[in-house]
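Table S2 (continued). Query chain:
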Amino acid sequence: MGGVGHRSAAAVAAVVLSSGLVGCTTSQAAAPPALYSPVSGHVGEGLAGFHPGDKLSVGDIPVCLDSPGSVTITNVEPVGEQNGMTVVAFAVRTIPAGVSPKGEALGDLTAMGVTAAEQQQRVVSNVCGAQSRSNVGLTGPPPAGTTEQWVEVDVTVTAPTLPASAQAFRIQYRDALGHERSTVSNVSLAMCGGKVGDACQPP
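Corresponding output:
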């Protein structure tokens, strides 16, 4: 059975920007862009009404870069998981302005409205906006010539035993130089049994 989401923290404040800049050539190569998940503080969500082995898909994991360029996400895994919560699928999704996507769903990413094409998307190229930069401690304004855009990582999780949870999610990625790097998103998640609407406290 599917659950109804309970958000235990304020909504993520993360305005991100899509880069349209062409970098200048210098005698010293600039560092490749780094990936951030600009969550304001910590965001948690708990959902009840599940059975062991059910799949739950959720969005709202914001991502952006500190400078123009692109990275490729290669894996997403739970941090501080309990009772075997694992990520079985993920995708990068761009949310158009004015659109309120479905935030969670029982089942795979398709059940959450993520299209087949979106499920293949792994590249992030949007630059962190002013609020996002503040959330993660980046200094200075966003680069001139960029436009606002919301980009998120959507994940599908499952667990053999309930309740199950993750304290955060580690996002692994490959930068423009081919180096494997990672960042942690302070988004926590819990899956509980019982009935839809029962309390399910995220870590």
